[in-house]
Amino acid sequence: MRLARANESVLVRVARRLCGHDVDFADDCVQEALILAYKAMADGKFTDVGNFRPWVLRIMTNHFFRESGRRNRFTTSDEIESIIDRQSAWDSHRDIASVVETAALRDEIELALGELSEDQRACVVLVDLEEMEYADAAQVLGVPVGTVRSRLNRARLKMADVITRKRLGELI
Q1: Side-chain-side CA neighbours of residue 131 (13 Å)
Q2: What is the b/e burial string over 91-124, where b = at least 16 CB atoms within 10 angstroms of the residue's CB?
Q3: Per-10-residue mean pLDDT for the chain, 172 residues long?
Q4: Rounded to 5 degrees, what are φ and ψ at 26?
Q5: Cβ atoms of residues 118 and 75 within 8 Å
């Protein structure tokens, strides 16, 4: 129970970024991951408490991939909490121009995330937004570190392209 509480905010944050608008789906992913983790620990299948976070994130990410494949849909997130926190943006940038510019950036990032494949999006969420090390993200996703690096590189290039096209479209 203590491990679940200590990691709940990270699980919820990652799930909501992966699941986009579908908060219920994100909450289901977190709940399923915690249930599966509890069962595995109760059965003695997992005892390495020091690696609980990457292990439970992997369970949750795998559940997300399975279920989203069934649902065959994804919508972008209204809120990308760690990129833009409106309250802290307002507190730290008292002038309205900065707040408007920050909101525009959030929308551009949101749009770009929606253009990525699920694999690429997961890499961006874990490495760029959650600031995980490549090795930890690889462990969570169950892929080699090189795969995380290449997916992240392609994702960043695609996001830059989407944002550039959007900005150019606004100029025309």
Answers
A1: 2
A2: eeeeeeeebeebeeebbbbbebbebbeeebbbbb
A3: 84 86 86 90 84 89 82 45 46 48 67 87 89 92 94 92 82 66
A4: -60, -45
A5: no
What pLDDT shows up at residue 108?
79
Report how far residue 76's alpha carbon sits from residue 24's, in angstroms, rounded to the nearest whole number.
14
Element (H, E) at 105: helix 96-114
**Domain 94-172 belongs to what topology?**
Arc Repressor Mutant, subunit A (1.10.10)
Q: How far apart are CA 120 and CA 101, in angstroms?
A: 26
pLDDT confidence of residue 21 = 65
Domains in the chain: boundaries: 1-75, 94-172
Q: Which two tokens stand for residue 6?
A: 């200590």
